[in-house]
Specification:
This protein has five helices and nine strands, in the order αββαβαββββαβαβ. By secondary structure, it is α/β, with parallel strands linked by helices.
Length: about 180
Amino acid sequence: MASHELTRKLEETIENIPDFPIPGIQFKDISPIFLDSKLYEAVIEDLVKFSKGKVDAVCGIESRGYLFGIAIAVALEVPFILIRKKGKLPPPIISEKYDLEYGSAEIETREGQIKKGQRILIHDDLLATGGTTEAAAKLVKKQGAEVVQFSFLIGLKDLKGDEKLKKFNAEIYHTLEY
């Protein structure tokens, strides 16, 4: 669990933008974190503490999952694997489709980068309904690896994304919850 000091600093730093990108949405703008290198380092330390000694690789979900995920992997001294939107990676790829509120989407990773039997941390900046993260976990499982952890800078409790991820029997961590 994040320290009271880190939580306080993040709550002061993350900007709440009402009605963006559409009316009724309260957008959590994490970009001010990157203006404070010490705060960014503290976030990485917090996320690394959750995963140290428990994972063999980190998968980050495009694109904001890369902002912290790469630094987590470097600190843990494990590989970082990109999970991207359809059509962004060269073949050979493995893909997973998932449903959105209106329509569907697809994510991909390069075949062979996730190894059978690896213990995987899936990281993204924010957990909302959990649909993309669930698809990422299915993508990892398709390749014979095990999702052992999910980590997020922010979890939105009311959207119940954690419920969608419980079926993977993996630890779930949010530095902040709203």
